Amino acid sequence: MRILGIDSSTPGCSVALLNNGTIVSEQIADPQPSYSKFLLQMVDQVLKEGEARLDDVDGFAVTLGPGSFTGLRIGVSLLKGFILATKKPFVGINSLEALASTVDSPGLPVCTALDARKQELYAAVFENTNNGPVPVIPESALAPEALCAAIEAPTLFIGNGVERYRDLFRKSLGDRFVEPEGPLKYSTAAGVARLAAPRFDTQNNFDLNQLHINYIRKSEAELSLGGSLAERRS
Asked: Is 87 left (phi over 0), alpha (psi -120 to 50) or beta?
């Protein structure tokens, strides 16, 4: 089964093609503000390297959040176009879960932390098992200090939020803050495709109305609209 995985939850977006359990091609974008412009080009390159056409893909998988509001919308919109064009099923994957699956963590829980701006993180803690990551601390948008308060044991940290708050984590957590010794096993998009593979047996979907983005918190536009409505009522 060929599965095309797409992750656009962060500026380091990625695309990967899984064929019968093996990642045959993947592309990872350098983090940049305009990364989403290259997403379709990355898909074309991944399919070319994987010696496949879009019609050869048996199913699609995409991160549904949390993450960049704009990036997630672009990734989901692209996926919707593929589904309409090919009539193939899709599976949505949590961004933090997909990221957790990309690292080996023998004996350690994994904290996936994405920069949510506004001095906050999108974060969760998982235990990696043979059946994939299992959440032990559920996802939330929270201050890095609040995340530190929830970490009670040595934990492996990954994600672009770690890059921003590394000094704070080291100071607050000491030996409880652990980073990977080497590179991740594969891209987040590859993690998306791998996690989706067994779920197509029970979760594959053709209904685009079921493709909901998990923002966790409201966007700036929604907050501004809410404030404006409140002012009008007062």
From this structure: left
Residue tagged 């412009």 (tokens): 37
For the purposes of burial, counting CB atoms within 10 Å of the CB of 199, is it exposed (0-12), middle (13-18) or buried (19 or more)?
middle
Predicted TM-score (pTM) of the model is: 0.89
To the question of domain 2-96+186-217 being in CATH 3.30.420.40, the answer is yes
Q: For domain 104-178, give the CATH number.
A: 3.30.420.40
Residue 73 class from Cβ within 10 Å (0-12 exposed, 13-18 middle, 19+ buried)? middle
CA 204 – CA 104 distance, rounded (Å)? 27
Distance CA 150, CA 156 (A): 14
> Can you give the pLDDT of all 234 residues of the chain as single tens digits?
999 999 999 888 999 999 999 999 999 987 766 666 789 999 999 999 999 999 999 999 999 999 999 899 999 999 999 999 999 999 999 999 999 999 988 889 999 999 999 999 999 999 999 889 999 999 999 999 999 999 999 999 999 999 999 999 999 999 999 999 877 778 999 999 999 999 998 876 888 988 899 999 765 444 343 433 334 444
Contact between 197 and 3 (Cβ < 8 Å)? yes
Whole-angstrom distance, CA of residue 176 vs CA of residue 72? 31
